[in-house]
Specification:
605 residues, alpha+beta, 6-stranded antiparallel sheet, 5-stranded parallel sheet, 30% strand, mitochondrion
Length: 605
């Protein structure tokens, strides 16, 4: 949509619906169902089906007054493989030169706004330096996740050795492009008891599956159901920003679902799946037949099983309401966090500025030990201690004591007693697959749903994705793994949708995750389970480092702080199919004190 050089033929007209930035995520679906086009009653519980409602579309041919053109550089100013941010007056553009050709794209990652000029250019795509999303430089299309939107692509022409970029002002200001999608041409009226595609779970996997189907031209009925009161939202933000309101977290506004005929059933719990008759039954007795099914139920947080577990003001963080209540109760009071994994540590970091005291209880001897290793874990622990967080390590909770029903003290197995007005439990999660036990859909001994590379379960037409699955990880010799990361759920949702449409896609993404604490970000790529050594470059005390996790002779994961874009660089190398050898890293560290990582993009050791 960015280009304005020539009018396309009318037959090729595709109108894209792109909401202005300020409108995104504004509205929240009310649990009462007010304003929903239809509410079906089932045993007294309102069912909300959100159906089609057209958005006003921008005019397909912006006039020349809506466009801007500028000479941005000389052809020799950029070498092959270089990127530069250039100014067009109405906004910036990312100019890329690869194989002698210039490309102009949106300059910010649509996910969280990272400057893509600081990312990694490789194999015809640019990878975001913050969270690893990838965009095709020829089209601007999103090719790897996280995030939902693509980049605008702008027209480039070369005249008298000068590079000119021509763009619509609207595209320059929006900085994101929602792919063209089909509308639903078979609305639910008249056959509300059946749908073509049913998606159980409205996290990243469920939403990306629904959007991918529409992007691929699928125009039949899609129903997305969720236990939540809300439309799909950015769950990783919950523990990093506990004050966030549901409307700030929304991944898409309500109008988006109406415009593309993606029906969302909120507060809808599936209790049985009948694969023989292709039918699901909800808790309120409502029945829905399907043709294709995606199971993306996610996981349920583990809870404490100690004495006093039923006292008030003890929380797992699952919904915006949970997060908001924790902040309210912690303000000026004593907070205890059980579990020093990602969720627990993010919550502890957030509460330090709100609570009177923050304490963390953990069974291991250092936070993140299994994931990041002893040395990195200790460096992070020090950062927390410098921010007044008290740690009780190598112990667990033996009792929660209450006063008038409300939490007052947490008693540890080490017999220490910690004052507590609110407690957050972050001790892991289990797959939310109990409803599948009698279904004939295979579950493993831990309750995960095993799938193949195409996200297919053992039952034809039934797919699964997200935190509740185990799948073959291509670049770790197809080892069956469970990777409960936000980015991975996006990728699996997309592959499931492509295979519902018989496109024979396979999951091949490199896992990528991040955490943010005290305004500092840690990025991580790969799959480090079973690492036997950690090679660290940089300064752990200053929290400016990169850590390579190795197993035998191979680098299997990398983590960094203040060392961008190294994690995206490693992810790109692993995605290309090249192994990084331990001795490459060791040799490099021996000869380099500069932190230069150009050796990584070389063609082998």
């Amino acid at each position: 949509m960015g280009g304005c050089f020539s009018k396309p033929k009318p037959v090729e007209l595709k109108i894209e619906v792109v909401l202005p930035e300020k409108e995104r995520g504004k509205e929240e679906l009310s649990a009462s169902g007010k304003g929903s086009p239809r509410a079906y009653q089932g045993n007294g519980t309102a069912r909300h089906f959100h159906t089609e409602e057209r958005l006003p579309a921008p005019h397909p041919y912006p006039g020349t007054q809506d466009c801007v053109e500028a000479a941005v550089c000389h052809v020799k100013d950029l070498e092959n493989g270089q990127m530069r941010e250039v100014e067009l007056g109405w906004g910036k553009v990312l100019l890329v030169k690869e194989n002698g050709e210039f490309h102009a794209l949106g300059h910010k990652c649509p996910h969280y706004g990272a400057p893509l000029v600081k990312g990694v250019l490789s194999r015809g795509r640019v990878r975001c330096p913050w969270h690893g999303a990838c965009f095709n430089i020829s089209t601007g299309d999103l090719e790897d996740f996280p995030g939902l939107d693509s980049l605008h692509k702008f027209q480039v022409k070369i005249e008298k050795e000068k590079v000119y970029v021509w763009a619509s002002k609207q595209a320059l200001q929006l900085q994101r492009r929602t792919k063209v999608m089909a509308k639903c041409i078979s609305p639910s009226a008249g056959h509300s008891g059946s749908t073509n595609v049913l998606i159980v779970g409205a996290g990243a996997a469920g939403l990306v599956c629904a959007e991918t189907l529409r992007q691929e031209g699928f125009s039949d009925r899609i129903v997305l159901c969720t236990l939540d009161r809300h439309l799909p939202y950015d769950r990783p933000k919950l523990s990093k920003s506990l004050d966030a309101q549901p409307e700030q977290l929304a991944l898409r506004p309500k109008e988006f679902f109406r415009a593309y005929g993606i029906e969302v059933l909120t507060e809808a719990q599936v209790v049985t799946v009948d694969v023989r008759n292709k039918k699901v039954v909800f808790k309120d007795g409502f029945k829905l037949e399907y043709n294709k099914l995606l199971l993306a139920p996610g996981s349920s947080p583990k809870t404490l099983s100690c004495k006093g577990k039923e006292v008030e003001n003890v929380f797992t963080i699952r919904t915006p309401e949970d997060a908001n209540r924790v902040v309210r109760l912690a303000r000026g009071r004593n907070a205890v966090v059980v579990g020093a994994g990602f969720l627990g540590m993010e919550v502890a970091a957030y509460l330090t500025e709100k609570a009177h005291s923050v304490s963390v209880v953990e069974l291991e001897e250092t936070p993140f030990r299994r994931f990041l290793g002893e040395r990195v874990g200790r460096a992070l622990m020090k950062m927390f201690e410098n921010n007044r967080v008290k740690f009780y390590m190598q112990t667990e909770v033996s009792e929660l004591r209450a006063q008038e029903g409300k939490l007052k003290e947490v008693v540890l197995k080490s017999s220490k007693v910690v004052r507590a007005d609110v407690c957050v439990v972050g001790i892991g999660a289990v797959p939310a697959t109990g409803f599948l036990r009698q279904s004939g859909i295979s579950l493993d001994s831990r309750g995960f749903i095993p799938v193949n590379k195409m996200m297919q379960t053992n039952i034809p037409g039934v797919f699964a994705a997200g935190d509740a699955v185990t799948f073959p990880l291509a670049w770790r010799n197809n080892r069956k793994v469970n990777i409960p990361h936000w980015q991975m759920a996006h990728a699996q949702g997309r592959v499931a949708a492509q295979n519902m449409l018989a496109q024979e896609a396979e999951i091949s993404t490199v896992p990528y995750l991040w955490t943010a604490m005290f305004g500092k970000s840690l990025r991580y790529a790969g799959y480090g389970e079973g690492f036997d050594d950690v090679i660290i470059q940089g300064d752990l005390e200053e929290l400016k480092f990169v850590a390579f996790y190795t197993k035998g002779d191979e680098v299997i994961a990398v983590a960094s702080m203040n060392y961008d874009p190294i994690v995206s660089k490693v992810a790109e190398v692993l995605a290309s199919g090249r192994a990084i050898r331990k001795r490459e890293v060791e040799l490099f560290l021996l000869h380099s004190k500069t932190g230069d990582m150009s050796w990584l993009t070389g063609k082998g050791s």
